[in-house]
Amino acid sequence: MLIVLSGPSGVGKGTVRKAIFAQDNNKFDYSVSMTTRQMRPGEVNGKDYYFVTKEEFEKEIAEGGMLEYAQYVDNYYGTPLKYVNEMLDEGKDVFLEIEVKGAMQVREKVPDGLFIFLTPPDLMELRQRLVNRGTDDLDVIDMRMKKAVDEIEMMQNYDYAVVNDEVEAAAEKIKTIIRAERWRVKRFLPDYKKQLGDVLK
Ligand SMILES: Nc1nc2c(ncn2[C@@H]2O[C@H](COP(=O)(O)OP(=O)(O)O)[C@@H](O)[C@H]2O)c(=O)[nH]1
Ligand SMILES: Nc1ncnc2c1ncn2[C@@H]1O[C@H](COP(=O)(O)OP(=O)(O)O)[C@@H](O)[C@H]1O
């Protein structure tokens, strides 16, 4: 199963994803993204991201090596296809944390993935989080808010919406959804159909 966590800029995707992976009882693997943005202090190449140059990233795109990618604030971000395919072939679940444009590309390619939209309690709180994060000037924050409203409209293309009111609670809700989704009929039927084909040979 391919699990996609997405949502508007600043809602807390990275924070909630880290809370999910901080617990070691996960049955799924995190797909490390590739990016052209600068490495921040404390980040590790290959763990937080694969940090590459613009030329290297564009070469990957040209060679068909990306499951999806998007340009976000002048940098490329994308999911390398190789690791995702390897995990899915081994029957493992893979977890992507990506912005909405990339998520929609994945929805096209993997329609039976699980798409979860992380949403803020309300727009004032989203703005407050961007202010608290302290990485942007107020005019940039206003631009991000306008973008966030467009991004929130994409919610209708997802399977579940999770309100990020409190980090641990949001992480728990997401894990509950993933557990429940494992028992969807559509995940069993193809396998039984294949077995039937083998049994009747
Ligand atoms: N489409 C896409 N978006 C990604 C990927 N990896 C990270 N992102 C998104 O890119 C945005 C910027 O990430 P980052 O630079 O780490 O900033 P921060 O999450 O705002 O601290 C976030 O919304 C991430 O969810 C990816 O592989 N593909
Ligand atoms: N549930 C929450 N309550 C309060 N602040 C939060 C919550 N989740 C995230 N934040 C804060 O909001 C800001 C944006 O979170 P971040 O994970 O960088 O968002 P994203 O990855 O979606 O851009 C950060 O300062 C983070 O600490």
Overall body shape: globular
What's the CATH H-level superfamily name? P-loop containing nucleotide triphosphate hydrolases
Largest sheet entry? 5 strands, parallel
Mean pLDDT figure = 93
The CATH class label is: Alpha Beta
Q: Would you identify the regions where 5 or more consecutive residues have pLDDT less than 50?
A: none
Bound molecules: guanosine-5'-diphosphate, adenosine-5'-diphosphate
Tell me the helix content: 40-55%
The radius of gyration over CA amounts to 18 Å
**Tally of alpha and pi helices:** 8
Name the strands of the widest sheet in spatial order: 2-7-1-8-9
CA(first)-CA(last) distance: 28 Å
Domain count: the total is 1
What CATH architecture do you see? 3-Layer(aba) Sandwich
Query: Which structural category do the helix and sheet elements fall into?
Result: alpha/beta
Strand coverage percent: 15-25%
One letter per element, helices H and strands E, the order comes to EHEEEHEEHEHEHHEHH
Query: What is the count of β-strands?
Result: 9
Characterise the protein shown here:
The protein has a single domain, classed as P-loop containing nucleotide triphosphate hydrolases (Rossmann fold), CATH 3.40.50.300. The protein contains eight helices and nine strands. The protein starts with a strand and ends with a helix. It has 201 residues and is α/β, with parallel strands linked by helices. It has a five-stranded parallel β-sheet, with helices on both faces. A four-stranded mixed β-sheet has the order 4-3-6-5. α1 crosses α7 and α5 (123-133) packs across α6 (138-153). 47% of the residues lie in helices and 20% in strands. The model has no long low-confidence stretch (mean pLDDT 93). The structure holds guanosine-5'-diphosphate (GDP) and adenosine-5'-diphosphate. Adenosine-5'-diphosphate is lined by residues 9-15, 129, 132-133, 164, 166-167.
